[in-house]
Amino acid sequence: MSDRVKGKRILVTGASSGIGKAAAKMLVAEGAEVIIGSANQAKGEAAAAAIGARYIRVNVREEREIAAFINEGAALLGGLDVLIQNAGIQYGGVIESFPTEQWDDIMLTNVRSMFLGAKYAIPHLKKAGKGSIINTASVAGKRGGAGMSAYAASKGAIIAFGTGLARELAPFAIRVNTVCPGWVDTEFNGPAIANLGGPEGQAKVIKANVPLGRQATPDEIAPMYVYLASDESSFVTCQSYLIDGGQFN
Ligand SMILES: NC(=O)c1ccc[n+]([C@@H]2O[C@H](COP(=O)([O-])OP(=O)(O)OC[C@H]3O[C@@H](n4cnc5c(N)ncnc54)[C@H](O)[C@@H]3O)[C@@H](O)[C@H]2O)c1
User: Fold this and answer.
1) Which ligand 1 atom is at minimum distance from the Cα of 20?
2) pLDDT of 249 higher than 90
3) Which positions ≥6 away from 142 have C-beta within 8 Å?
4) Which residue, judged by its Cα, is nearest atom 20 of ligand 1?
5) What's the CA-to-centroid distance between 50 and ligand 1, angstroms?
6) Mean pLDDT of the region 56-71
7) Residue 128's domain is classified under what CATH number?
8) Does residue 166 lie in a domain region?
9) 248 located within any domain
């Protein structure tokens, strides 16, 4: 590792496991000061201790908690350079019988949280004089799958939110980009796997649709967050990056 984000003050949501944890770990290894947030305190504290970060509990469904995570996090870090919004949930099911409560829940957790996180982070990033906001969407936000329309709608909204926000914040040298992973081997995909009839169905779909023929590991997604958090990406904004083994183009 080579100090690519040395001294950067970074907040990461949804980082007690999976992609967020792998990204936070790589950011710490590259010299950043990182605070991770997630709703599960025991898991979050354990993850933070394991990777050399600090932890603040945040349920991204709650505006008050997001505001506190960002304001307390920025105070502890002495400012804020990068916000990574990665927390998300997934439900599967055909629309005809899809519970309306689950539609609302997915939009609240996946989309509204991104608006609120950005809203409370922007004053801190402006104070820093430049910054980077990185949101996690999904290949599903570009190409929905049958039985995953609610999830796809939430991830498509994150991509569109990022392009608008990037234009709004460009005059302040605050960049906004979106990471769109394909299949990643985490616990997250239970509903998608069930929707495909179990792990065998998932394996068939991956073989048929992913040229590289397999899932990614979280460590294969993490470098994109380091790049977008670092000054190496100083001319990059308004983009959404697929890391999907060639699944969609
Ligand atoms: N695994 C995949 O195949 C895949 C593919 C594309 C996109 N993604 C996206 O990547 C992100 C991370 O997923 P992952 O695969 O690492 O799974 P994960 O289950 O390991 O991570 C999800 C994280 O979100 C957090 N979270 C969920 N609800 C929360 C809430 N209300 N408040 C605070 N934190 C909350 C969880 O605690 C966890 O840390 C998600 O946004 C997901 O949509 C995952």
Assistant:
1) 16
2) no
3) 156, 159, 180, 240, 242, 248
4) 18
5) 18
6) 98
7) 3.40.50.720
8) yes
9) no
